[in-house]
Design goal:
This protein is of the alpha/beta class. Helices cover 30% and strands 27% of the residues. It has 5 helices and 9 strands.
């Protein structure tokens, strides 16, 4: 089973394991808002959002950025999913994601509708990752 968590996202919505029960919960960790790789990954998720949302996916991006940076990132790129600040790295550590110097490693955890971890991506290619997630949540 996935570790239980509940956090308030940049848009004021509480998201977590209990709130996403019965849906796929995709928690993707990224190092820093507005950086080239993180922007490419987030925009790729944005561009596949219609397909993901039809697949009953709750998508949550997590980084060490604070809430202001998360809101700015979401607004700048019109991101339709939730972003969670994890300034102290506690959520990253809960999922075994390395967190150093204010940044988490780029990794993704896919939690199934039953609350069990379905897949862990410890290595991510930002150019193909959104398609991998769409295939995993079908």
């Amino acid at each position: 089973m996935a570790p239980s968590f509940s956090r308030t996202s940049h848009d004021g919505v509480v998201v977590g394991t209990a709130e996403s029960k019965g849906k796929y919960l995709v928690v993707y960790f990224y190092p820093k808002s507005e950086s080239p790789g993180c922007t490419k990954e987030a925009c790729s998720f944005r561009d596949t959002w219609n397909d993901l949302s039809k697949q009953n996916v709750v998508l949550v991006g997590v980084s060490g950025d604070d809430d202001i940076a998360q809101r700015g990132f979401a607004d700048h790129y019109k991101l339709p999913f939730h972003l969670i600040p994890d300034v102290d790295g506690s959520l990253a550590r809960t999922f075994g994601v390395p967190f150093n110097h204010g940044s988490s490693a780029r990794q993704t955890i896919v939690i199934g509708p039953d609350g069990a971890i379905k897949k862990i991506f410890r290595s991510v290619d930002v150019t193909t990752h959104a398609a991998e997630i769409a295939a995993t949540t079908k």
